[in-house]
């Protein structure tokens, strides 16, 4: 980079890391308010049923039970959802899945609450249930919601695919499926609350979006904005599932009625049962190339199963449609992604919002075409990979920060070396090796809708800086990066900045910690606030130093003349003077990326202001006798614009790879069957391969100091790279995730590897 | 979990007395790595937990009159680290390598592994190939039963509530080849989808002269697979023979279990793992 930075670009120690390592920090479950009551919900034991009656008498008779609430006790609007409101906090006349809550029990102890919940009697009239989204779309299918089972449909149409298929050199059509996935964040959902001296309901919660929680709880209770305050407790991961209201609404309801402290901590089983999952997809895709390997057409029909409620389903459908092409320029596109209600556990946001599912399809197709044409997998991606100046399927001209080809170039030497020295190295006669490539692009922020962030940057008359931001740090490190950005602008150290984070009582809305958006969007909002503050300080310095503004810069807590740095004045002095004159030292920052809403028929528009790009290479060894897959190494190149905190970027990449291994090989949530980590397998450290993270910096002009995002991109290319690796090892492709023992051994047998080798 | 009384007896005799007194309202707890899970899920609802984990009488691995004796209270970590087992029962030692995690190995006991009667207990196939006998102490005195009789079915034990496993007695053997292998859904902290243990000696002419083989996790209780042993003994191990032996193994398994849905995987995988495990004996 030409520009020199002092604070951003360094892996400074992360906020709270010491308190986390020493165990001093308080997560939501650690918050023990005096005399707090315990909550527990009675959940449905029917996937689909009408509620005939709810009898709470026996529950109330349980010793230690204080109250039992049902839908009738909800004073406001009993419908939740960030995009479409379709999910009651407590079921009214029907349940639509096993996760549905029917009654809320408040008790003195955990045991009493549990016994109380068990004693709530619900009389159901069973209804036929539908679990398969393709079935759910058929005529005459059971209706999960009155408006029908089709929640939404996103189309992206460009050019003429049919004409392209006719003239194509090679056409390949396949179907892919992906599984439902549990987020399995380390901290199960939890929260606690009390009513403060002003009658305000104060709720601490493990959450990714405190300002959304606030709006939702206010609506649920029908109270004024200032009667509810959400404080984000230190949050132990979320991966998207803590974007929904989990415990917050229940705590709010109990506080509203009882006015005494309460807490609710999900067991792992309840977190599995009752929170959102990743949408399973069925993807039918047909692609065509010319004789040189250039993709000329892509047609896709995909269905994603959102289960009983929408949650982020519409966003997942929308984003997946936009990402269907992958990071490739394709002239003729016809994509249709439907989001469908069924009686499964509801699905919502999960790291990647549909893009990981799409990546399985576009990366598999890429390899299939390469094979058909005798092209190298890396070469075909180079031919088709997006470059600045090209236009995406939604008609967006990509002008800058298109680092996909750079990612391919970065992986190339590892790829060539692995092909030459590793692939053919002698190994066990019953083990086969394969190298797989996976590419991805990922739009930063929400899809074609406004998604602003705000922040306040304040300086005290003594020169101390405080940033107020609603941006929830859920472990990814946004608080540290926002402090770095502020410090960079104001010539301070990152630890000179006091951060006040995620408290609706004193921070303004920064939107969700999702869509890999916080560094880019909240980073820009904070930068905007800091620059406004910097401007008044510089104006004041002009007066003091008698030098024009453009000759001044911030350094070490001072404003100095650039060519004569010894001529300087401390920021504290400037602050004091501004304050004494009645000037303002408190500035509100704002940023909303420039997007254009997508046309409902063609998807034309500008869904995102910028995109992250990545390429992973997987080296896998497959045991042809047992179906076991050993991922030896993942080389992961990521274009992040500018890595403001390289340590955080590497952390995201390694974590993403680990999650990608799970998505590729073992994870599968089966509603009604999967209960906890005893029957749901996430990778252990032994399953995580060596990771070679490579940071590519292709600065984004609209990003804060050139930054984009990496949180979700980190995961997306891993599974397709592994699947492509397995396919090349076995000469047999797997189209369904996870590629578990059963599927791999089947592929091995079909490919004829399961036999005497001598 | 409701309230449970915790009792820590001072000796095996003491423990038996308590167990005899409390009957089925008491449960033995050793490492607790199964018991705690079962308590949480409601699988068991005892009023008393009798903790035998610190009883010295249940500790130790030693040779006694040409027999290899392993106390029921020996932990998987102790098995993992035992030189005596490396020499005389290496397959058992190997079964401790991929057993759960280091933390669990530090407290989980071999007695608990066997007494829990899970079809997937990893120490059982190695015990079976050493034709282990189980020493039981109860209010009527001591008994010695073959390892294969401890489980009468999945999670169903032959033991009376007042009975306690005190030790396992193995036939030690320095076999030319011994191994344990398992397949799980991931590399660590995985319950076996299938497991097997083997010991092989060869004659000077290269034919198999001795073989003990046991299959775990596939049948309701782990089994020594005598037809497979008989088929292999007297033959020269080739890849082809291993595939044939594995085929026979899969057929013997299906004979016991019938064709359940999991067979789609287990049928080839049992054969495959057999080939993988025995491949080193092909010359
Ligand atoms: C995360 C996790 C991973 C695991 N991984 C594996 C694995 O890889 N392989 C595997 O085989 N197992 C595994 N297990 C299961 C468990 O760890 C083993 O079965 C272990 O050996 C049990 O021993 P323990 O001492 O903890 O038994 P406990 O839980 O104390 O007892 C188990 C049962 O045996 C009875 N019992 C204990 N000692 C005696 C005795 N001396 N006489 C009579 N009855 C007795 C108890 O009453 C109880 O019924 C795992 C468990 C967990 C939680």
UniProtKB/TrEMBL annotation, chain A:
Please list the residue ranges annotated as the Aldehyde oxidase/xanthine dehydrogenase a/b hammerhead domain. 22-128
Tell me the SUPFAM superfamilies matching this sequence.
Answer: CO dehydrogenase molybdoprotein N-domain-like, Molybdenum cofactor-binding domain
Q: What is the residue range of the signal peptide feature?
A: none
Concerning InterPro entries, the annotation shows: Ald_Oxase/Xan_DH_a/b, Ald_Oxase/Xan_DH_a/b_sf, Ald_Oxase/xanthine_DH-like, AldOxase/xan_DH_MoCoBD1, AldOxase/xan_DH_MoCoBD2, AldOxase/xan_DH_Mopterin-bd_sf
Quote the Gene3D superfamilies the UniProt record gives: Aldehyde oxidase/xanthine dehydrogenase, a/b hammerhead, Aldehyde oxidase/xanthine dehydrogenase, molybdopterin binding domain
Domain of life from the UniProt record: Bacteria
Q: Which GO terms describe its molecular function?
A: iron ion binding; oxidoreductase activity
Q: What is this protein called?
A: CO or xanthine dehydrogenase, Mo-binding subunit
Tell me which species this is from: Desulforhopalus singaporensis
UniProtKB/TrEMBL annotation, chain B:
Q: Which residues form the FAD-binding PCMH-type domain?
A: 1-175
Q: Look up keyword Oxidoreductase and say if it applies.
A: yes
Q: Which InterPro entries match?
A: CO_DH_flav_C, CO_DH_flav_C_dom_sf, Diverse_Substr_Oxidored, FAD-bd_PCMH, FAD-bd_PCMH-like_sf, FAD-bd_PCMH_sub1, FAD-bd_PCMH_sub2, Mopterin_DH_FAD-bd
Which keywords are on file for this protein?
A: FAD, Flavoprotein, Oxidoreductase
The UniProt entry, under PROSITE patterns, shows:
FAD_PCMH
- Molecular-function GO term, any one: oxidoreductase activity
**Name this protein carries in UniProt:** Carbon-monoxide dehydrogenase medium subunit
> Per the UniProt entry, what species is this protein from, by scientific name?
Desulforhopalus singaporensis
Lineage of this protein's species?
A: Bacteria, Pseudomonadati, Thermodesulfobacteriota, Desulfobulbia, Desulfobulbales
């Amino acid at each position: 980079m030409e520009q020199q930075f002092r604070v951003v670009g360094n892996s400074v120690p992360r906020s709270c890391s010491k308190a986390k390592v020493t165990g001093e920090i308080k997560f939501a479950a650690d918050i023990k308010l005096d005399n707090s009551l315990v909550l527990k919900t009675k959940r449905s034991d029917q996937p689909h049923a009408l509620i005939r009656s709810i009898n709470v008498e026996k529950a109330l008779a349980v010793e230690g039970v204080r109250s039992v609430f049902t839908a009738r006790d909800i004073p406001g609007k009993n419908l939740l959802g960030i995009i479409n409101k379709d999910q009651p906090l407590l079921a009214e006349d029907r349940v639509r899945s096993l996760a549905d809550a029917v009654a809320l029990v408040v008790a003195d102890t955990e045991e009493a609450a549990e016994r109380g919940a068990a004693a709530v009697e619900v009389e159901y009239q069973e209804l036929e249930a539908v679990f398969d989204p393709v079935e759910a779309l058929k005529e005459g299918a059971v209706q999960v919601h009155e408006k029908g089972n089709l929640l939404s449909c996103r189309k992206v149409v460009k050019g003429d695919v049919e004409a392209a298929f006719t003239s194509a050199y090679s056409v390949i059509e396949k179907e892919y499926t992906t599984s439902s996935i549990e987020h399995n964040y380390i901290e199960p959902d939890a929260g606690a609350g009390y009513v403060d001296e002003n009658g305000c309901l104060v709720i601490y919660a493990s959450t990714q979006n405190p300002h959304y929680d606030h709006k939702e709880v206010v609506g649920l209770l029908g109270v004024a904005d200032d009667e509810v305050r959400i404080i984000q407790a230190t949050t132990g991961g979320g991966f998207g599932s803590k974007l929904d209201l989990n415990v917050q609404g229940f705590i709010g309801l109990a506080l509203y009625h009882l006015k005494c402290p309460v807490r609710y901590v999900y067991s792992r089983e309840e977190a599995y049962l009752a929170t959102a999952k990743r949408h399973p997809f069925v993807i039918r895709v047909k692609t065509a190339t010319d004789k040189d390997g250039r993709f000329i057409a892509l047609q896709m029909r995909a269905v994603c199963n959102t289960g009983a409620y929408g949650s982020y389903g519409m966003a997942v459908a929308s984003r997946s449609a936009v990402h269907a092409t992958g990071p490739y320029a394709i002239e003729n596109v016809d994509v249709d992604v439907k989001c469908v209600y069924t009686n499964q556990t509801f699905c919502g946001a999960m790291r990647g919002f549909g893009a990981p599912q799409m990546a399985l399809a576009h990366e598999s197709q890429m390899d299939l075409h390469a094979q058909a044409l005798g092209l190298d997998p890396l070469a075909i991606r180079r031919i088709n990979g997006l470059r600045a100046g090209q236009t995406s399927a939604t008609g967006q001209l990509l002008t800058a920060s298109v680092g996909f080809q750079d990612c391919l170039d970065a992986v190339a030497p590892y790829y060539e070396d692995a092909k030459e020295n590793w692939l053919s190295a002698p190994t066990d006669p019953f083990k086969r090796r394969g190298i797989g490539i996976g590419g991805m692009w990922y739009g930063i922020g929400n899809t074609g809708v406004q998604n602003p962030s705000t922040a306040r940057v304040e300086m005290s008359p003594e020169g101390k800086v405080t940033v107020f931001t609603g941006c929830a740090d859920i472990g990814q490190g946004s608080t540290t990066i926002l402090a770095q950005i502020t410090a960079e602008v104001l010539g301070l150290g990152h630890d000179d900045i006091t951060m006040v984070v995620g408290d609706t009582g004193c921070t303004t809305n920064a939107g969700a910690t999702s869509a890999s958006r916080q560094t880019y969007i909240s980073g820009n909002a904070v930068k905007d606030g800091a620059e406004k503050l910097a401007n008044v300080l510089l104006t004041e310095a002009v007066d003091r130093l008698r030098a024009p503004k453009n000759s001044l810069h911030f350094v070490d807590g001072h404003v100095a003349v650039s060519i004569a740095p010894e001529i300087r004045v401390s920021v504290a002095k400037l602050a004091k003077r501004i304050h004494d004159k009645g000037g303002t030292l408190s500035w509100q920052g704002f940023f909303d990326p420039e997007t254009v809403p997508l046309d409902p028929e063609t998807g034309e528009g500008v869904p995102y202001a910028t995109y992250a790009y990545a390429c992973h290479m997987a080296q896998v060894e497959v045991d042809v006798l047992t179906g076991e897959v050993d991922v030896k190494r993942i080389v992961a190149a990521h274009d992040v614009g500018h890595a403001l905190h390289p340590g955080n970027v590497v952390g995201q990449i390694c974590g993403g790879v680990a999650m990608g291994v799970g998505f590729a090989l073992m994870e599968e949530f089966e509603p009604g069957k999967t209960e906890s980590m005893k029957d749901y397998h996430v990778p252990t450290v032994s399953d995580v391969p060596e990771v070679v993270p490579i940071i590519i910096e292709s600065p984004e002009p609209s990003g804060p100091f050139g930054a984009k995002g990496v949180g979700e991109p980190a995961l997306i290319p891993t599974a397709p790279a592994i699947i492509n690796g397995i396919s090349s090892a076995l000469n047999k492709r797997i189209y369904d995730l996870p590629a578990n023992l059963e599927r791999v051994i089947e592929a091995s047998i079909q490919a004829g590897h399961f036999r005497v080798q001598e | 979990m409701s309230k449970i009384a915790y009792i820590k007896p001072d000796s095996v005799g003491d423990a038996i007395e308590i167990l005899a007194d409390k009957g089925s309202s008491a449960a033995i707890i050793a490492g607790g790595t199964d018991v705690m899970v079962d308590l949480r899920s409601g699988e068991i609802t005892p009023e008393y937990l009798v903790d035998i984990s610190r009883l010295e009488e249940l500790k130790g691995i030693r040779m006694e009159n040409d027999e290899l004796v392993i106390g029921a209270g020996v932990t998987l970590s102790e098995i993992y680290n035992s030189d005596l087992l490396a020499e005389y029962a290496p397959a058992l030692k190997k079964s401790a390598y991929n057993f759960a995690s280091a933390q669990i190995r530090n407290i989980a006991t071999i007695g608990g592994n066997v007494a829990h009667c899970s079809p997937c207990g990893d120490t059982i196939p190695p015990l079976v190939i050493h034709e282990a006998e189980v020493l039981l102490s109860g209010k009527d005195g001591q008994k010695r039963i073959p390892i294969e009789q401890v489980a009468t079915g999945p999670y169903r034990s032959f033991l009376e509530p007042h009975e306690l496993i005190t030790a396992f007695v193995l036939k030690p053997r320095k076999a030319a080849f011994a191994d344990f292998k398992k397949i799980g859904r991931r590399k660590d902290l995985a319950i076996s989808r299938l497991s097997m243990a083997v010991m092989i000696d060869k004659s000077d002419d290269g034919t198999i002269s001795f073989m003990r083989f046991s299959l775990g996790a596939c049948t309701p209780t782990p089994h020594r697979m005598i037809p497979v042993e008989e088929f292999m003994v007297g033959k020269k191990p080739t890849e082809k023979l291993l595939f044939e032996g594995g085929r026979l193994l899969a057929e013997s398994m299906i004979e016991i279990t019938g064709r359940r849905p999991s067979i789609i995987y287990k049928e080839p995988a049992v054969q495959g793992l057999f080939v993988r495990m025995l491949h080193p004996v092909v010359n």
